[in-house]
Structures are given as structure tokens and as C-alpha cells.
Amino acid sequence: MRPSVNTRLSNRSMAFVLAGGRGSRLKELTDKRAKPAVYFGGKARIIDFALSNALNSGIRKMAIATQYKAHSLIRHIQRGWNFFRAERNEYLDILPASQRVDGGHWYLGTADAVTQNIDIVDSYGVEFVVILAGDHVYKMDYEVMIRQHVDTGADVTVGCLTVPREEARAFGVMKVDAHGQITEFLEKPEDPPGMPGDPDMALASMGIYVFDWRFLRELLLADAQDPDSSHDFGKDLIPQVVKGGRAMAHLFIHSCITSGLEEEPYWRDVGTVDAFWQANIDLTDFTPKLDIYDNSWPIWTYAENVPPAKFIHDEDGRRGHAISSLVAGNCVVSGAEVRNSLLFTGVRAHSYSALEYAVVLPEVVIHRGARLRKCVIDRGVEIPPGLVVGEDPQEDARWFRVTEGGVTLITQPMLDRRAAETGEG
User: Fold this and answer.
1) Where is the Glucose-1-phosphate adenylyltransferase/Bifunctional protein GlmU-like C-terminal hexapeptide domain (predicted)?
2) Domain 310-422 falls in which CATH fold?
């Protein structure tokens, strides 16, 4: 038999990105957008990490299943990921929950999101499907994971993080044998099983799965007929394969991408306001835990055509400057002080204002004399003159959302309510 010219498995694969979740733990940040569409890192969205990993891994066929408040996400994909060309055998399909199957229901679970689009996946003509969550921040070469899947003859290969056993209670946890075969899948167990040879550590599911498409297709069709199933990969399909098939664990450390600056593999679920704030602030460190400046593994996104950032005024007490901070394009720091903060595109910080440990989403206006510390400011918010946040937690909690970690989330409706009740503009 004539050998295949193309031996790269990613060219025979597709990425199916599950991006329909609201992410309710992000509170008001997901009032207008799904969690994968939440901003991250100064100019990107969270979903850009999964898509960039797929693209950089060599995968040129992708589908994105959307559901909750998808407009912001769809618009971002249309603007920033519109370079796929069908004549080059490249595809990126957006698959909203549109009641395409008999019964007319929305996506009932993560597996059902794929089941309702079986005909579309069929049309790609792929051998392997990589199931991805669209709401995690990490860099990973999926080709390595697909290669392991083929070499081990697995029915499913599950991406796994190595975490301390105490932390594993919040995850789906894999119990594996000495060869890496998963013998048990436990959802958020009270007593997570340790790893072979390292009982203090556990294997937690990343929500990344590799299947042969033929196998997954039959599995999905059978699951769709099961009235007792919740039609979810983690709750139903993966445990089923563990019991009756060959499920293998893939360790993230074997396929994570580092530039040499990262001290350890980086993966974050930025699913809470505290985690979101921390992951963004981490980027301002002298040596950040995640290197987003690595041109060998770029994080692709919508590249807006905007002017450079600008810093103006040079007087004592009114000097526009930023220290240990990330400042995106079209920002104007006008006589303001910015420290250990991250400013997204189009922020305006006016004279005598001060920001410290602040994550400021796009097109925020910060008026004169405002002092903001350890906060997240939603897109388009207008901070009134002289507002002080981060110095009196009890006062902050009267008007804004203050998290367990002491981060203050500020949105425009919160400010409007404060203005209405206090008379302050």
C-alpha cells in the first residue's frame, strides 16, 4: 500500500470547541457575553487560547458550538478568525444551538452539542476529533496528544493535569494503572486517588478528549437514545468508555508549550472573578507564569487597527506613566499613574487618577482624581471623578461586588445605582 504523504495527524483531525457555557461564577462579567468571549491579556478573548493551540498544532478544521449570549463571541470569531479558506481544505464553522434535530431542543449537554452536528463533522472527512473547552488559558500542542492516542490504540485519550490531591476535589479525577490506562473516573471526589509512584498528586481532567471519529460517532448516537443520560462527556461518555473500553490519560506536561521563561506548565480555569483577576495580573510580573510574548506559539486574536498607546503630562503629581503594567493600543494615560495593572484597548486615564493592581477592560474612561486598587472594571465603564475603590472594603461592598479574595468588580449599572442613590455623578 502506498504510504501517506502527509504523516502529521493534526491534518487528519478537527477541533470541536465547546463554547456555549455562561460561566456564572464570573458574575456580571458574563451578563452580556459567554465565558469564552470574556477578555483576557490586554487584547485577546479566552477562547483564543484553544483556537490558537489548534491552529499552531496544525489543525485546520474547527467547529465552535455556541449557546448562551453568543453574539459577542460570534462577532469576535467573524472578525478575528476569518482567514480560513475552503479551497485550502480549511474550515471554521460556528454552530449555534439552533434546534437542528428532531425534538427541537437546545444543546442538552457537551456531548449533545456534538451529536446535533454529526452531519457537519461527517462533512469534514476527518479521522480524529479533539474535543476542547473554550474557556481555559494554556498553551498546548495537540499533535502530541493525538499521536499518543494513535500509538496506544485508545478509544479515548483524556488530557490530564497533575495537581495536589487536596486541590483535585474540584475536578474530575482519573485513577490510572502503571501504563497510563484510566481504570476509574471520579467526579469531584472527597478522597481523590493518588498517581502511581506519587500518591500525593492526582490526575485531574482538563476537559480535553481525543477520539477516533468513527468510535465517537457511534458512542454519541447510542447516548442520544439513553433517557437516563445527561448527554455530557465528563458525566456520561468518558465513564462509559473507562468501564467498557480503553481510555488513556495524557499528561499535560508532555505537550505543554513553554518558551523557556515559564517555570512550570501553565493552565488556568479563569472561572471566578478572583481567578480572572489573578491570571491577568500575573502577566505583569517581571517573569510571568505565562509567556504571551512567545512568537513561536502566538496567541491569535482580532487585531484591531488602532493607534499606539500614549502617555502625556510631565509634572509632579501629574505625570502619565505605567510601571510593571501592560497597556494595549489606543490607551491614553494622561497625567495618571498606573502600577501593576493591565489596560485593554481604548482606555482613557485622566489626570491625577491612580491605578494599582487593576484589570481594566476595553474603552473604560477613568476621570480625574479616581483611585482604583485591586479591581476589575467591565468594558465601557465611566469611572466618575474622585471615586476611591480598594481602600474601604465595606464601602466598596455597598455599591460593587467584592469577592472573597478582596477583588472589587465594577460595572456601569453598579455605578448608575450609586449615582442615583448618592447624587454623585
Assistant:
1) 307-410
2) UDP N-Acetylglucosamine Acyltransferase; domain 1 (2.160.10)
